[in-house]
TrEMBL record, chain A:
Domain named Flagellar basal body rod protein N-terminal: residues: 7-35
Domain Flagellar hook protein FlgE/F/G-like D1: 103-174
Domain Flagellar basal-body/hook protein C-terminal, first and last residues per copy: 235-279
Cited Pfam families: Flg_bb_rod, Flg_bbr_C, LlgE_F_G_D1
Lineage: Bacteria, Bacillati, Bacillota, Bacilli, Bacillales
Organism: Aneurinibacillus migulanus
Protein name per its UniProtKB record: Flagellar basal-body rod protein FlgG
GO CC, one annotated term: bacterial-type flagellum basal body
Compartments, record wording: Bacterial flagellum basal body
From TrEMBL, chain B:
Entry GO terms, CC: bacterial-type flagellum basal body
Keyword ATP-binding: no
Protein name: Flagellar basal-body rod protein FlgG
Annotated source species: Aneurinibacillus migulanus (Bacillus migulanus)
Domain Flagellar basal-body/hook protein C-terminal stretches: 249-293
Family recorded in the similarity comment: Belongs to the flagella basal body rod proteins family.
InterPro entries (UniProt xref): Flag_bb_rod_N, Flagellar_basal_body_rod_CS, Flagellar_FlgE/F/G, Flg_bb/hook_C_dom, FlgE/F/G-like, LlgE_F_G-like_D1
A biological process from GO: bacterial-type flagellum-dependent swarming motility
Organism classification: Bacteria, Bacillati, Bacillota, Bacilli, Bacillales
C-alpha cells in the first residue's frame, strides 16, 4: 500500500468515527439527560525525508531542509458537551431535574463482581419502588439514588407515604396519614471539571479510574449548608437531551462530504496504481 | 540507454509525492488548526553534454585522432518533489460556544520583508510535549480545541499542557478556586489573558502567544498539528502594544485551512500528469523494442 492510500484510509476512518458519533447524538436527541458528544481531530505522524543529503544544493528553498509528508488524521478525543438541556414539564412528583451544569445526582450500582460502583447522572426520571418494606427512589435502570450524608445511603420513604415533595435544596418531605414528615435529602454533587467523567452507559458517568472521589466530586448540599448559586433540584420536570439537531445535521453533512472526499482520493490512488501496472504490457 | 526514460520515471515519482501531500491535506480537512501543504517541483541539476570530435585529425592517410571537445548543450534529467511548503493562511473561525475553545485571529498582522521576500508573520500558542529525545520541549500550534485535565491543567486535545508567558503549564484549578468551569467563571480577554471573575484573589494568567515572522522558513511540521521552531533565536513573545491586530477568541475554533475543492482538482491534475508520464515511458519502451527488432534474423 502506498503512502497516499494510507493517508486517504486514515482520513476515512477518522471521518467515519465522526459520523458514528453524530449518529449516536441524533439517536439520543430525545433521551432524558443525554449530553451530546463531539469528536476532535489531530493530524497524524509526520516523517522527515531528504531528497538528497546536501542542503547547499537546494538554494532556492522556502522551508527548512527536507520534506515532511504527513500520515493523515486521527480523531484525538471525544468531547462531551455538558450544557444544560431544555426542560420538559411533566408534573410527575418523582421527575426531577438539576439546575447548574456541573451538578449530578449520585447513584449506586452493584456490579457483577459485587463491587459498589459510584455513578453520576443528570437523568432525573426517578421512580419509587417498594424494597424491604419501604419505597426506594431509583433511576430508570433501577439503581438507588443516594442521599447527602457522608456515607451515602439509598433514599427511601415509608410505604403509604403520599404528597411526595422535593425542595430546591434536595430535601424530601411527604405526608404519612395527616402528618407532614421530613425525609432524607437527595445528594447533589458538583464536579468542577466534567471532562474527567467517563461515560458508563445508560446515561451514567463515572470518575476516571484512579481519581479519588472525595477530591473530584464535592457534595453541594451537606446538612445545614445552602446550595451554591445556580444549583437547585427542581420537581415535576425532566431535563431533555441537549442535542441540537440543526447543528448535528450540519456536522453530519460536513463529515459525510469529508468522508466522500477521502474515498475519492482513494479511488484516484487506485487509478494511479492501475497506471503503474500498465507500464509494462508484456 | 535513452535519457528520457529516467526523466519520465522521475516525473511519475514526483507526482506520486505530490499526491501523498494532497491526500494528507484532504484527510485533515476537519482537523482544527491544520495548515495545508503545497508541494513544489524542481528539476534535477542540469548536465552539460559534450561530444568528442573524432572526425578531424587533419592529416590525410593517417588514423583519425580525437579532436577538441564540442559542446552540445545542457540537459536536465527529470524532476523531483523538492519541498512541502505549509500554507499558513488563517483557517475559518467557527463558533463552538465551549469555554476552552480558543482561536487566534491574526489576519491583520502587517507583512514584513525578510531576505528580500515578503512574508506574513503569524501568531502561535505554545505547548509542551516530549521531543525526539524524550525531553519536554516547547512546540507551537494553532489548534485551540482545549480541555482541562484531572490535575487541573489546561491542555490540548492530545493532553499536552498549554504554556503561559513564563513557559509554565497553566493550572486552571488554582485560577478557578472552587468555582465550576464554565463561560462565566473563566474568561479569556482578546489579549490572551485568562481571568476568573468569581475568584478575585487569583492572579490572571497570560497565555504564551508567540509571533513567528517567517513561519514557512522557521517552523517544521510535527505530528498532532504542532510545529517545532527551527530558526535562529526564538519566536517573539506577543506584545500587547505592537500586536494590536491580534485577537484571541474564546468559544471559537480555527478550522483547517484546506480547500477541499481545490485539492480535488489538484488530485485530478496530478493523476493525468502521472498518466502522461507513464505514456512517455511506454513510448520509450516501444522505441527500445524496435531497437531489439533490428538485430533479428
Amino acid at each position: 500500500m502506498n503512502h497516499s492510500m494510507i493517508n486517504a484510509s486514515a482520513g476515512m476512518r477518522a471521518m467515519q468515527q465522526r459520523v458514528d458519533t453524530i449518529a449516536n447524538n441524533m439517536a439520543n436527541s430525545d433521551t432524558v439527560g443525554y449530553k451530546s458528544q463531539d469528536t476532535a481531530f489531530a493530524s497524524l505522524l509526520v516523517r522527515n525525508l531528504n531528497n538528497q543529503p546536501y542542503a547547499e544544493q537546494e538554494p532556492s528553498r522556502i522551508t527548512p531542509f527536507g520534506t515532511r509528508p504527513g500520515f493523515g488524521a486521527k480523531e484525538a478525543v471525544f468531547q462531551t458537551n455538558f450544557e444544560q438541556g431544555t426542560i420538559k414539564t411533566t408534573d410527575v412528583p418523582t421527575d426531577l431535574y438539576l439546575g447548574g451544569e456541573e451538578s449530578f445526582f449520585r447513584v449506586q450500582r452493584t456490579m457483577d463482581s459485587g463491587e459498589q460502583a459510584v455513578l453520576f447522572t443528570r437523568n432525573g426520571n426517578f421512580k419509587l419502588i417498594p424494597v424491604n418494606g419501604q419505597q426506594r427512589l431509583v433511576t430508570e435502570s433501577g439503581d438507588p439514588v443516594m442521599d447527602n450524608s457522608a456515607n451515602p445511603t439509598p433514599i427511601a420513604i415509608p410505604i403509604g407515604a403520599t404528597d411526595f415533595k422535593v425542595k430546591s435544596d434536595g430535601q424530601i418531605t411527604y405526608r404519612l396519614g395527616d402528618v407532614e414528615q421530613t425525609g432524607p435529602r437527595i445528594g447533589v454533587y458538583g464536579i468542577q471539571n466534567p471532562n474527567i467523567l467517563n461515560h458508563a452507559g445508560e446515561n451514567y458517568y463515572q470518575l476516571s479510574p484512579g481519581l479519588p472521589l472525595n477530591q473530584y466530586a464535592q457534595l453541594s448540599n451537606a446538612d445545614g449548608t445552602a446550595m451554591p448559586e445556580g444549583v437547585a433540584v427542581h420537581q415535576g420536570g425532566l431535563e431533555m437531551s441537549n442535542v441540537d439537531l440543526r447543528k448535528e445535521m450540519t456536522n453530519l453533512i460536513e463529515a459525510q462530504r469529508a468522508l466522500q472526499f477521502n474515498a475519492r482520493a482513494l479511488s484516484y490512488n487506485d487509478q494511479m496504481m492501475d497506471i503503474t501496472n500498465r507500464i509494462f504490457r508484456g | 540507454m535513452l535519457r528520457g526514460l529516467d526523466a519520465a520515471a522521475s516525473g511519475m515519482i514526483a507526482n506520486q509525492a505530490r499526491q501523498d501531500a494532497l491526500t494528507n491535506n484532504l484527510a485533515n480537512v476537519n482537523t482544527p488548526g491544520y495548515k495545508s501543504d503545497n508541494s513544489t517541483f524542481r528539476t534535477f541539476p542540469e548536465l552539460l553534454l559534450e561530444r568528442i570530435r573524432d572526425t578531424n585529425s587533419g592529416v590525410a592517410g593517417l588514423p583519425a585522432f580525437p579532436g577538441p571537445k564540442q559542446t552540445i548543450g545542457r540537459i536536465s534529467h527529470g524532476v523531483y518533489n523538492q519541498e512541502l511548503v505549509p500554507n499558513f493562511i488563517q483557517g475559518d473561525v467557527t463558533e463552538t460556544g465551549k469555554v476552552l475553545d480558543v482561536a487566534l485571529v491574526d489576519e491583520g498582522l502587517p507583512t514584513i520583508v525578510e531576505n528580500g521576500r515578503q512574508v506574513q508573520p503569524r501568531m502561535f500558542f505554545a505547548i509542551q510535549k516530549p521531543g525526539e529525545n524524550g525531553q519536554l520541549q516547547t512546540y507551537y500550534t494553532r489548534s485551540g480545541n482545549w480541555s482541562m485535565n484531572a490535575q487541573g491543567q489546561l491542555t490540548t486535545i492530545e493532553g499536552y499542557p498549554v504554556l503561559d508567558i513564563n513557559n509554565q503549564p497553566i493550572n486552571l484549578r488554582a485560577l478557578l478556586g472552587n468555582a465550576p468551569l464554565n463561560k462565566s467563571t473563566l474568561q479569556l480577554t482578546p489579549g490572551g489573558q485568562l481571568i476568573a471573575p468569581g475568584n478575585p484573589n487569583a492572579a490572571p494568567v497570560q497565555l504564551g502567544l508567540y509571533r513567528v515572522n517567517n513561519p514557512a522558513a522557521n517552523l517544521v511540521k510535527e505530528a498532532d498539528t504542532t510545529f517545532r521552531y527551527s530558526g535562529n533565536g526564538a519566536p517573539t513573545l506577543y506584545n500587547p502594544v505592537n500586536d494590536i491586530s491580534v485577537a484571541v477568541k474564546q468559544g471559537y475554533v480555527e478550522r483547517s485551512n484546506v480547500d477541499a475543492g481545490r485539492t480535488m482538482i489538484d488530485l485530478m491534475t496530478v493523476l493525468r500528469s502521472y498518466e502522461s508520464n507513464q505514456r512517455v515511458l511506454q513510448a520509450y519502451d516501444m522505441t527500445l523494442q524496435k531497437l531489439n527488432e533490428v538485430g533479428k534474423i
